[in-house]
Amino acid sequence: MDNHRWSLLHFAAYCGDPHMIDLILSHVPGIESKAVNGATPLLIAVCHGKLRAVKYLLERGANPLTKDNKGQDSLSFGSSRGADVLDLLLSHVANGFSVDSKEAMGRTPLMVAAGNGNVQAVNGLIKRGADPSLMNNHGWSTLHFAAHCGDPHMIDLILTHVPDIESKVANGATPLIMEFSVDSRDQTGRTPLMNAALNSNVQAINSLIKRGADPSLMNNDGWKSLHFAAKNGDPDIIDLILTHVPDIESKTADGTTPLIIAVRFGKLQGVKYLLERGANPLTKDNYGRDFLSHASSRGSEVLDLLLSHVDNEHIDVDKSCIGHLGL
C-alpha cells in the first residue's frame, strides 16, 4: 500500500483494466479493501469513469452501496460521470437501495449530477424516482445546484419535472417530502436566482425569472438578487436585475445598498454602472458609514470615481481618512 493506503487493487481499478483486476484478485481477494479516505476499488473505478472496471468489479461482487469516509457511495460519484456508468450502477443495486441516498453533507446523487451539469445522469435518476425537492444540510435543493452550475438547460430540465411530481402528489401516488419552489431557500435564505446573480449567469437568470423566480426576495441578511449582482460587479447582471426590480437604493438588514457592496468588494465596473444608473454615493448604512468608509481600503480608481460623482460640499474627508487613503 502507498501513503494513501491504496493497494494494488486500487491502482488496477484506477487504470480500469479488468484483466489486471482479475489477476490481483486471484492473489489478494480484498475487493472491499479501503484506502485512507474509505474509498474501495469500485469507488475508485467509478470516480475515474472506468466503465469496464466498474462492470467487472460489480460482477465479482463489489458492493455499490459501500460508502467512503464522507458518506459518498458509488452512486454519488457515478452521478458526475457518464450515463453508462450510472445506469450500470443502478442496475446492480439491492432492493432496499434509495436513489435519494445522501452523503455526509446531505447531497443526493441528483444534486451532484445537477451541479456537474450532467443531463444524462439527471434524466436517468429522475426516471428512477429521484426527488428534486429534497435539500442538503445547508438547505440547498437540486435547483440551487443547477443554478450554481449556471446551465440554463439544466435549470429548465429540473423545473420541467416538478409539475410531474406535484401531479402525482395530487393523485395520492407519491408523497412529496418538501414543497418544491423555484424560489426555494437554503439555510441562509438564499434562492437559486441569488446564486445565478452571484455567478454572473445571464441565461440562468433569464430562465429562472421566466419560470417565476422573484428577484425582490431577501435572504436572512436582507440581501436581494441585486445585492448579489453588485457583489459580483458585472454591469450586465446588474442591468438585468434592475430591469425586473428597479430598486437601486434597496437596503440590506444593516442598511447596505448595492453601491456600497460594489465599493466594498472593489468592483470598479459595478460601481461605475450603478453610479450611471443613479445610485446615490452619499447614502449611509445603519452605522453611518458612507462610500468613503468602504472605499478607503480599495483602489484609488474606485475612490476617484466616487469622488467625481459627489460635490465637495457634501463630503467631509477628515484628516485620519486622508492619511489612511494616502492622499
From TrEMBL:
InterPro entries, per database record: Ankyrin_rpt, Ankyrin_rpt-contain_sf
Key words, A-Z: ANK repeat, Repeat
Repeat keyword on record: yes
ANK repeats mapped onto the chain: 37-69, 105-137, 188-220, 221-253, 254-286
One Pfam short name: Ank
Keyword Cytoplasm: no
Name of this protein: Putative ankyrin repeat protein
Organism: Stylophora pistillata
